[in-house]
Amino acid sequence: MKKKLLLFPLVLSLGYFTLVSYNAGPAGSGGGNRTGGPGSTGAATCGGGGCHSAASAATTVAITMKDVATGAAVTDGKYKPLRTYEVTISVSHASNSSFGFQCEVLGADNNDIGVLTAGAGQAVRTSGGKKVVEHTSRISGSTTTFTWTSPAAGAGTATFYAAGNSVNADGGTSGDSPSLPYSVAFSENNTSVGTVDNAVDIVSYPNPFSSTLNVKLDNAASGAYTISAFDLRGKVIYQSTEQVTNGKLETSINTYKWAASTYFIQVDKDGQKHTSTVVKY
To answer: Does this model's pTM top 0.70?
Structure first.
């Protein structure tokens, strides 16, 4: 009899944990990658697999972007390299007033592309070998925003994979409505970006770096080269113009005051650009 009495509250506690376990986001609560894209673990969406009821078309998901620097909405389905975009994700349902979501951004090789930065009530986590941005608490309304910094030129198409779960905020799963998997692709707009002659060998080292970063060019045509460093928001934090006369150039950048983060190093000659990604620890 004592065993039965002990078992009953245990069953209740397990049931309660199942109901609320994903309030902090699937990846943050052991539920894995639920985006429906490559890297998804367990159930492909927020429906099933100990999460919520089956996914349905009653909940819709949509993603739009705008350039943070210019405020211009992306209407042509293309992103520009090394720009920071505000991404708005909408999760809509006819009657529910709150939602959760999870999103990943992958390139043609199904690996992470660009850099995700969480918005309010969100976190960026790793799940299924991919970076995902997801809610950390229930989001009121039908929209929320996060930022995505696009990669350097030549990275190709970026596909956003997302799943949403519209909820009625009653503390349980009854009445919640997970979406079907959603995806939208943005191709690279590189029509205005040329590439420094492929014969030029360009290397930024060491990578990762600490207080000094070196940029070296070999087999470079004579002329003026502009070396720039951008942070994740696309802000120029360093720039210099260097002259190449004998096919070689090596210059050092004092990075002592730079914060530990990811940066983009761009070498530009006559509008032709080469960009690489470096990390400060």
So the answer is: no
